[in-house]
Amino acid sequence: MEHINYTIDADGIAFITWDVANSPVNIMNAVTMPAFFSTMDQALEDATVKGVVINSAKNDFIAGGDLKWFLNYDKSKEDCYNMLLETHRAMRRMELSEKPIVAAMNGLALGGGLELALACNHRIMTTHPKNKTGLVECSVGLFPGAGGTQRYLRMLGPQKTIQYITQSKKFNAAQALKEGIVSELCTPEEDINAKAKEWILANEKTQQPWDNKRFQVPGTPVGVGQLSGITEFFSVSNAMAFKNTHGNMPHIKNVLSAIYYGASCGIDNALEIEARYFTDTLFTKESKNIIRSSFIFIGDAAKGKAKPKGFEKATYNKIGVLGAGMMGAGIAYVSAKAGLEVVLKDVTKEGAEKGKNYSQIVENKKLEKGYTTQEKIDVLLENIHPSDDVNDLKDCDLIIEAVFENEKLKNTVTKETEAVIKDEVIYASNTSSIPITTLAKASSKPDKYIGLHFFSPVDKMPLVEVIVGKETSEETLAAAIDYVIRIKKVPIVVNDGRGFFTSRVFGKFVNEGISMLSEGIPPAVIENVAKKIGMPVGPLAISDEVNLKLMLDIMGEDPTLTEHEKQLEKIIANIVEVHGRKGKKEGAGFYEYPDGAKKYLWSEWSNIFPVKEDYDEEEVGRRLLFAMVIDAYKCIDSGVLREPKDADVGSILGLGFPIHTGGVMSYIDYIGASEFAAYSEKLASQYGERFQLPKSLKELIEKAENNRVFYKN
């Protein structure tokens, strides 16, 4: 067959080999799965076949289900449910055949790939350090739909099943063996197929544990709730899930239901339960949004799809980082971790050494948890060279400036550095707000000048805004994207403008929170509603982190402030100058920060901004999100962003925008185009022009098909 190869050796062992055509990995979809099951049935019905080995002709076993296929699934719920039942029946034929079936798991075996292996009698996994296995579907808005919830449950019990599935936990070979997820290990040098055959010849007849009439689900010996602690555990799991997701993630709620109800019945009924909940999940708009944005859009961005065509891959050996503060130290760390040599320059050698020490601190924490070794730490640290001498930058292939956000200082550093580096070297600024075209005026080669806006903390935040100035060349852009990919970050391309994309749009979130406080909406309501709608932190808490005095300074330098923002500037100035509330650094912002204790909201806000009683929680949440969404569209409309998907990727990775909505542009489709327009009009009439939709967006909404502006599914 085109995707599945089938051979039988002289000893009667059938080898069913996955080798999906025109794909770098084996994926499971409406074409490959029927082909596999047809081949499996052929082997099971052949009396001369003693046993079956499922293996792969590619470097990995099976990467899982084809998420693009799931995203574009356009049949009915009934069709979906029946398709899943047919999959379950086919996998049950494998389990009930008595012929030994072995999964030879070379490379990655994730999601559906592991689910298929779980239906085998024996699983052998290679011990290559990059080899991982696990049921990871929850990370993309789904959950295991090929029997994974019920087979995990019967192998591991409910507590581990819930933990491992909802957290999309991956296991290396040793961990998988310890958990009982795989049965045997194989070194990369050993012949995994020979090991599989050996096991088959030693086990003529087999039975899955859950097909024994005396089998009991571990931890639930007489059904759910009959063992002390189990009912309570399910209740606590449900409560914790709601606390973390606020009900915004249907796939988490549904997988918990599938596990709970599947625990109290036999495997066949349990698989029907899983199919029912999986079908419901697939047809939710939240799951489609997560698949589209987190898997497809972010996946494409991480592969460098935004790179201009026609340029060779840029190679880097040695880079220079200017400024050893928090951002510079973080950039040096991720670069050294990627194997690059880094000159970390600061005004003093002591400052540069302190910046290098940041890498030591980060790696020591990983060492304590067993995630790295001292040898790896030593290699990484050897790659970072602290310096206070600009001449040490002369051999660098790339310069990244991360000094204080001050235009005059940045210009001085640019001129000083360009005097010693080679003409072909790209110069990048980590500015978060100053236009790149403005900064490039200090450069003798503005075509080689670009912005690389990292996020704090650099070692944890995946996004990098690659900012193109008016004179930045396409070659420079291509090379900059190659660097971002090299350090395993996710680039989006942003054209020049004050605040670029993320800083500008995030400012709208913060501004709206402070505006509502000044209107008399209680601060606890603002903060809690922000979390309820899916934001990781409230606007007041993040304002304290950024620092209100710094926000004032930035507003003071911005000639484009609207009337609303000018009024807000006065409110913030009053908070800072009259009440002395500057932020977390000073221990006094919207919150109080007592030494050694948890922060809490300052109690005097109700005296400064008298509380109004008739606020609407839904409106509070929508104001926070609509403010960001409308401004994000303005970024597309004005050319700051090139495509809607860049806004979605940037908002999820850079702003923490609720992932179940798909991002700032997907949000319009999530709400529904006509509903979004109507609610925006309502907000604009009550709160002003910032909620007024641009004419071009109104036109798009009027033409929208199926109430969707940007994406079909």
Write a structural description.
The protein is an alpha/beta fold. Helices cover 48% and strands 11% of the residues. The chain has 29 helices and 20 strands. The strands form five sheets. The protein has an eight-stranded mixed β-sheet with strand order 13-12-11-14-15-16-17-18, sandwiched between helices. Strands 1-2-4-6-8-10 form a six-stranded mixed β-sheet, sandwiched between helices. Strands 3-5 form a two-stranded parallel ribbon. A hairpin with a 7-residue loop joins β19 (591-592) and β20. The longest helix has 21 residues, at 617-637. The radius of gyration is 28 Å and the shape is globular. The relative contact order is 0.06. Mean pLDDT is 94; it is low at 221-228.
Structure, briefly:
The chain has 713 residues and is α/β, with parallel strands linked by helices.
What's the alpha carbon Rg, rounded to whole Å? Answer: 28 Å
The termini sit apart by 32 Å
Tell me what portion of residues adopts beta-strand conformation: 5-15%
Q: Low-confidence runs (pLDDT<50, min 5 residues)?
A: 221-228
Mean pLDDT: 94
Biggest sheet descriptor? 8 strands, mixed
Provide the spatial order of strands within the biggest beta sheet. Answer: 13-12-11-14-15-16-17-18
Number of helices: 29
Key features?
20 strands; 48% helix; 29 helices; alpha/beta
